[in-house]
Amino acid sequence: MTEQTQEPFARPDGRAVDQLRPIDFQIGIAPHALGSVLVSFGNTRVICAASIDNRVPGWMRAQKVEGGWMTAEYSMLPYSTHDRKQRDISRGKADGRTIEIQRLIGRSMRAVFDLKKLTGKTIWLDCDVLQADGGTRTASITGAYVAAQIAIQKLIAKEELEENPFTDSVAAVSVGVYKDTPVLDLNYPEDKDASVDANLVMTGSGKYVEAQSSGEEATFTREELDTLLELGAKGIAEISQLQKAAICEGLK
Ligand code: UDP
């Protein structure tokens, strides 16, 4: 009788299933922006910059909406991917993925922000992917919060803002099912073969802002979803601590 041997499960980079990639925040990468950071989740690296505009969008002025606004733009630099990605400006329009991601970043930030306290100002959050290796949208959200929080604290120090409008911190991470196993923080080789792909956006206090999960030519069970949510919550708790430390360091 022949015995069937099954290969033991292993992630391409050898991480444990609940292990994040090495995360790093390089603060002040774009000195002309009030707040900026180069955030790395392993080989995914995104420049996030927060700039202040002392006006609100036309629709807010027209509708006499009080307070300020915060919005985001996302792009992948042409050389961030293995095959050069054409700039949107050369193509003449942003693709659907870009629009979806930048709206997600803006929503994630506004969920933990009291816009009424930002009277007359707009915060622009620019997220530009320098190197893509999976999870660029979750890295963008994580870095955008750090850049925005630094910008806000600098505005307060300059006496251009009275109170901090942030009500909580926000971070994001991807989770997914790779080779039938739920894993945290997928890199590109995992992402491309994952049967379930999920992006979780959560606050530092553990509440959800967004939980998107989709089967990729596959379905998933309630049990798998519960495991993914647990992995994500563990990851976000760790990322939130790293964000806190990076902001403190960045404001020294
Ligand atoms: N990717 C790419 N070119 C693209 C879009 C995506 O090379 O035009 C790669 C990139 O490594 C990215 C990954 O595919 O991180 C997964 O893309 P997805 O759309 O799932 O978004 P992400 O995981 O980056 O948030």
Automatic annotation (TrEMBL):
Pfam family, one: RNase_PH_C
Domain Exoribonuclease phosphorolytic residues, every copy: 19-148, 169-234
Protein keywords: Nucleotidyltransferase, RNA-binding, rRNA processing, Transferase, tRNA processing, tRNA-binding
Keyword Phosphoprotein carried by entry: no
GO molecular function: 3'-5'-RNA exonuclease activity; tRNA binding; tRNA nucleotidyltransferase activity
Reaction catalyzed: tRNA(n+1) + phosphate = tRNA(n) + a ribonucleoside 5'-diphosphate
Enzyme Commission number(s): 2.7.7.56
PROSITE patterns: RIBONUCLEASE_PH
GO BP: rRNA 3'-end processing; rRNA catabolic process; tRNA processing
Binding locations of phosphate: R97, G135, T136, R137
Keyword check for RNA-binding: yes
Enzyme class: transferase
NCBIfam families: RNasePH (TIGR01966)
Assigned protein family: Belongs to the RNase PH family.
Subunit structure: Homohexameric ring arranged as a trimer of dimers.
Role according to the record: Phosphorolytic 3'-5' exoribonuclease that plays an important role in tRNA 3'-end maturation. Removes nucleotide residues following the 3'-CCA terminus of tRNAs; can also add nucleotides to the ends of RNA molecules by using nucleoside diphosphates as substrates, but this may not be physiologically important. Probably plays a role in initiation of 16S rRNA degradation (leading to ribosome degradation) during starvation.
Listed name of the protein: Ribonuclease PH
Source organism (scientific name): Coraliomargarita sinensis
